[in-house]
Amino acid sequence: AASAAASAPADNSTRTLPEIVSTAEGFATLVTALKASGLDQTLNGAGPFTVFAPTDGAFAALPAGVLDALLKPENKDALTKILTYHVLSTAVKAADVTNGDVATVEGQNVTLTSANGAVTVNGANVIQADVVGKNGVAHAIDAVLIPSDVDVNALKTGSSRFPRGLANPAT
């Protein structure tokens, strides 16, 4: 059977995390979302970052209509909030994961677990670990992580219950 795990070139030491995912198979939706939110520019910065990168299959598993709604300009704050919930402001390899909560760039915690070599983040499985770039490390995951204060059902119906300015406290 063919592997569902995404693939990335072996030597990424001179490439940023967005550069890596933009050329890796299985991350086209993430690349589109990063560009729509403007986070592709942020994640090209010095870092270090850890990115839990949802695969195209993870995005496809969202409820019908949610992805399309998130990519609309009027939902940029919600998209940014969801994407930054996948980013840590430090580089963490799979072997260094300890069980517990860790703060994301978004501000809320995610729960990391490691058992018998398998790593999960909020229950999502890391299906490809330790894709190391010059500004951090990426781990492919099989689900999109949704912060507790984002109502994806409200997004798909167009009645946003997402508080304005939450993704960017400066607004």
Q: How many strands appear in the DSSP assignment?
A: 7
Radius of gyration: 15 Å
Along the chain, the helix and strand elements come as HHHEHHHEEEEEEH
What coarse outline follows from CA principal-axis ratios?
globular
The residue ranges in which pLDDT falls below 50 over 5 or more consecutive positions are 1-9, 159-171
Quick one: biggest sheet?
7 strands, mixed
Strand order of the largest sheet: 2-1-7-6-5-4-3
Into which percent range does the helicity of residues fall? 25-40%
The helix count comes to 7
Strand content: 15-25%
Between the first and last Cα atoms, what is the distance in angstroms? Answer: 49 Å
Structural class based on helices, strands and sheet pairing: alpha+beta
Give a brief description:
The chain is α+β, with helices and mostly antiparallel strands. Helices cover 27% and strands 23% of the residues.
Describe the structure.
The chain is an alpha+beta fold and 171 residues long. It has helices at 17-23, 28-37, 39-42, 56-60, 66-70, 76-84, 152-157, and strands at 49-54, 87-88, 100-103, 109-115, 118-121, 124-133, 136-141. Strand 3 (100-103) and strand 4 form a beta hairpin. Helix 2 crosses helix 6 (76-84). The longest helix has 10 residues, at 28-37. It is globular and about 40 Å long. The N and C termini lie far apart (49 Å).
